[in-house]
Amino acid sequence: MQARAIRSTRLLASILCTLGLIGAFAAARAQRGPRNEAPPTAEFHFARMIYEDAPRYQRFGRGGGGWWSQDWPDAEVHFTQSLKRLTRIDAGESVVIELTDDAVFDYPWLYATQVGYWDLSDLEVERLREYLMRGGFLMVDDFFGEEEWIPFQETMTRLFPDRPIIEIDADTDEILHVLYDIDKFTQIPGLRHLGGGFGGRRGRRGNYYGVQGLPEPYWRGIYDDDGRLMIAMNFNQDVGDAWEHADDSFYPAPMTALAYRFGVNYVVYAMTH
């Protein structure tokens, strides 16, 4: 009788453990965002790239949500709403997508954030190269300092070993004049750089130091043989935060306005080149 009770207890524990593992797996999958099971329904969808974090930067573990989801989904919700108001582009719901998904070729514009922390496989690098050479456009955002620039640059070398990273010229580059004329490179910081803390929470000490402590901002890119900008790099910038906190009175309105101008120009450029 006692042996039967022990076996029953062990069986119940095994079932509960299995259910727990299933639940954990489902939760990890859910963190990665909705899957793209239907084709695009509009001419433009804000497509955010899913990637695996480099081991040293993992927050949620491989297979779960990670740094790719920073500012998601508020950044794209706010930006898409403004894109509809400011242009005549037919913009649909935002999506999240992996480079290994064939549907990535249905989206002409791709956004990746925290790219100093990503860990792209050889297959993902190959697919990204194909995506860009077939006319796709990639905007990378929210990475700061040499510690994050170096691993990003190493990925760019794997992606295009024969194509240099070039400073975007404010006077001559079409992407800065395709709709809005952007001739002053004002730094676009994250909320945390304004003393707002992480995740929109105010810092305990209220250290409103502005952006004086940030490294110099850069706008860089990689071009194809015809001079088309394929990758726009917002280095030492956090444009996504400016979109995410567009409705937060704490975030400076001029910086949000500039972030929208950059984003709109990027989209219009991607849709027309």
Spans of at least 5 consecutive residues with low confidence? 1-34, 196-210
Global morphology:
globular
Order of helices and strands: HEHEEHEHEEEHH
How many whole angstroms does the radius of gyration measure?
Answer: 21 Å
| Oligomer designation | single chain
Number of domains: 2
What would you note in describing this structure?
With 273 residues, the chain is of the alpha/beta class. The protein has two domains: 1-29; 44-272, 3-Layer(aba) Sandwich (Rossmann fold), CATH 3.40.50.12140. Helix content is 35%, strand content 13%. The chain contains six helices and seven strands; from the N terminus they run αβαββαβαβββαα. It has helices at 2-31, 74-86, 122-133, 145-159, 239-244, 253-272, and strands spanning 47-50, 95-98, 109-113, 137-143, 166-167, 218-223, 229-235. A hairpin with a 5-residue loop joins β6 (218-223) and β7. It is globular.
